[in-house]
Phosphomannomutase/phosphoglucomutase (Nocardia stercoris), 458 residues
Amino acid sequence: MTVARTAESVQAVVKAYDVRGIVGEQIDADFVRDTGASFARLMRAEGADRIVVGYDMRDSSPTLAAAFAEGVRAQGLDVVNIGLASTDQLYFASGRLGCPGAMFTASHNPARYNGIKLCRAHALPVGQDTGLATIAAELVDGVPAYDGTPGSSSAENLLEAYAEFLRDLVDVSAVRPLKIAVDAGNGMGGYTVPAVLGPVEALTIAPLFFELDGSFPNHEANPLDPKNLVDLQRFVRESGADIGLAFDGDADRCFVVDERGEPVSPSAITALVAERELAKEPGATVIHNLITSQAVPKLVTELGGTPVRTRVGHSFIKQQMAATGAIFGGEHSAHYYFRDFWGADSGMLAALHVLAALGEKDRPMSELASTYNTFAASGEINSTVADAQERAAAVLAAFESRAVEVDRLDGLTVRLADDAWFNLRASNTEPLLRLNVEARAPQEVDALVTEILGIVRN
């Protein structure tokens, strides 16, 4: 049964940064075949002659990827199939081959979902304003046929080249022996971790849920949700590991747990990697989004670098990476971006930096992380509201007299005395208002959260 298409149904699937929906209800083979054709038209107009395609371990991924490839070839472009891949492996392929790419994944979403992450040559992003709106329009109106010769198809296995490339960027060959507990969440980390970390003699991998299974039988492959870290935390303690790593479904994000089983904030990882990258290139620019801990820009400034603050979202980070020539960028969601990786994000590359930092000195991960955890934070707290703008305005009215600074780069950010601040952002897709609070002490954070939620949820 072909999925019916209206402007509204297409808009629900073609999102700000990617294409994502429920298989059989919102997307199917016909839908992605036309998406492939439209993307190929767009890329052909920009001079591309081939597109690289990869897919994750979801049951629907091979079929959908094959349909997408049909659409690409029908528009006269060749297809390079790399088969099973993590999203950052697809970005590597796009960079190494110098061609646009399409990755079939729904990242951390449940098994019934699938989608496509698209990029231009050298892993440059494709968003609403840079191609997705055009694709969405053609999915509704119809993709014009191509009257030239169809493209061809070839296959290439780039896993080992990807692994060697990352190890060349971060040398972990001389680190002290480390036992690493890794929770792949039945996602693509179970495929890429052995290839990247396995050859390093000093590293002993203790695997958890490495079996590729798009039904996610153990837990959701979304380490941003604390409940999905519980298995790794217990495994780290029971196995006596020096560190724990958790990857999301398409393995482009990496979360860290210390030797006690305690989560290490992505802001601390951002600061750690920023310090290493600035040691390599003093004075360089480092990108951070506006709800990353202020410890990050403070550290970057102290080290002589230039911190640049952006909106939340990978397209904004990647745009700023390109515009500023930044050496590195980090987000609170554990996306980490590297100039040496075509400005794209790679959780595996961030993990290598952490392992190198941990393995270079004889101290535990908890002690290393404490160097960068200089503030207390609430984490992201969601509230269901009928009118996000009205609730945010009510919060601003209550805090305006105490505010040191107010800005609206992304939602509402209010800075208070003694380095405290909070941000309220409305979700783009749900009736939610997202709150993040940071202050010097946990009790200050708790007090602010209580006061702000008392207004938001009134």
